[in-house]
Amino acid sequence: MRLTLQYILLFSFCYQLGYSQCDSNYTYINDLPSSVTILAGSDSCFFDNDLIALNDIITLNQLSYETPLHLGTQTWLSGRLRFFVAGNYWGGVESPLSILPESIGNLDDLRSLYLEWNNLSSLPESFFQLTNLMSLYISNNQLEEIGEGIENLNNLYFLDLGYNQIPSIPDSFCNLENLTYWWMFNNELDQLPDCLCDSLNISWNDDDAAGYPYFA
Predict the structure, then answer these.
(1) Sequence-distant (≥ 6) Cβ neighbours of residue 145 within 8 angstroms
(2) Which of 114, 171, 209, 212 has the highest Cβ tally under 10 A?
(3) What domains lie within the chain, and their CATH numbers?
(4) Which GO terms describe its cellular component (predicted)?
């Protein structure tokens, strides 16, 4: 029977009464799946709001996972989720995601997020609370727009939006001053903001040393 997040938190709370290994708002989980990596210097204390967001992804998309930590591939540092692979492929999710919960905004310490090959047609407004995000891979979905809130993700260095259904780019996109790689191929673009070429720090016609284009 799939354990609910509430059961996990209750069990962990009782466990902590004897061991007190975690600060407030963190849950100690000792039995970790192989898909979870805890970076050096960290322990098995996990931020409750991060666990809630992962559990909401499972619930909304009617997935079958034993615990939130079994979802995709996860890397944690100091109790916060830093690296999350939830693309629909090996090492990602078992079935395509069709919706992201509002609680996705809880993952505000996330640095890299992989969501390729899902069925996402939109992003919740809270998605733009992921202000520490540096790499976002969300190609091969069904996205129909990029929200104006994209400008809040101003730490983005790599953004892959290829193979979606996006017709236009909002003016706020021009505020992504750290964006170096932007892949946008195979969309339905018919409009670009005037500020685009002058504002972004992208080598539009060049490739990097490994042969990857900065813009495609």
Answers:
(1) 122, 166, 167, 168
(2) 114
(3) 5-199 (3.80.10.10)
(4) cytoplasm
Spatial distance between the Cα atoms of 100 and 185, rounded to a whole number of angstroms? 23
* Entry pTM: 0.90
| 151 Cβ contact partners less than 8 Å away, ≥ 6 residues apart | 172, 173, 175, 176
**Strand, coil or helix: what is 213?**
strand
Q: Tens digit of pLDDT for each residue in 143-190?
A: 999 999 999 999 999 999 999 999 999 999 999 999 999 999 999 999
Higher per-residue pLDDT: 17 or 160: 160
Count of C-beta atoms within a 10 Å radius of residue 69: 21
Segment 49-78, tens digit of pLDDT: 999 999 999 999 999 999 999 999 999 999
CA gap 161, 136 in Å, rounded: 8
Q: 80, 47 in Cβ contact below 8 A? A: yes
Residue in the block written with tokens 């290994």:
21
